[in-house]
Amino acid sequence: MNARRTRLVGYLCALGAGTLWGTTGPLSTALYAQGAEITGIGFWRIAVATLGLLAYGALRRELFAVDRRTVLLVGLLGGAFVALFEVAYQFAIAGAGVAGAAALLYTAPVMVALLADPLLGERLTATRLVLAILVGAGAAMTVKGGGPTGGPTGGPGLLLGVAGGLMAAAAYAGTTVLARSVVPRIGSVQFLFLEIAGGTVLLGVLLPLTGRAPLPPATGAAWAYVLALAFATVLAANFLFFGGVKRIEAAPTAVAATIEPVVAALLALALFSQHLTAGGWLGLAMVVGGVAAGYVRDAARAG
What we know:
It is a single chain. It contains 13 helices and no strands. The chain has helices at residues 2-21, 24-33, 38-59, 68-96, 98-105, 108-120, 126-144, 158-186, 188-209, 220-247, 250-257, 260-272, 278-302. Helix 3 (38-59) runs antiparallel to helix 9, helix 5 runs antiparallel to helix 7 (126-144) and helix 5 packs across helix 8. The protein is globular and about 45 Å long.
């Protein structure tokens, strides 16, 4: 009974993480309506989350017990991936819509499968290649079947949105590959802290140099959305995901978390009337099914 309860809690944690991640697009869309700049939303999202982890570290001092080489590696390289992701994903949400951006993001496992062969020695099998094609085709169908994006007036068009989504997926894939080599040594929480802290510093330096200094949210509602993005979609979602991994295998945890694009699409439909055509919903199902099948297959092979 205890083992069954532990497994149930693990799945609930993973589903909770995916659900919270699925609110990223709707919360960002709500921020556009408050006049927030696309490039500033990602900065404030991770800056506030970093402050939250600093407060956590005041109680758990081991969070800061990391060697200098790891700090430089994760802070700079991981931080660069995070900085790219935060800006690119906002362009994806504004240009391709909430569902389209989430579907494009889930091409990241495809990129990981392709990168894992030369970088980690994980062989690219025919099945992985077929699933990669399935996910890519599904993402394209989701974007093509999308309606109005709800992005800011004068915001990026569909082409920039798709480019942003693919860049965000590439950044996420890079983070995943980096995490596979570093997390076993320092743990998930330290890795998360170092990469979002590095991303915050990089965006804080680079955005003003491009003439897009991140202005603070202008209204109380905007601050509420930013706090929700930071504490729900960054901190709570990741802690829930880590909690799931501790209780069940990594593959089923990841499968359960693929509820994210479905939640994003349903919220976008309910809150912003961002409709998907039948082909768009089919594409979304192909993305979720392809990613889930890949994780299940990898778990079966590992077992």
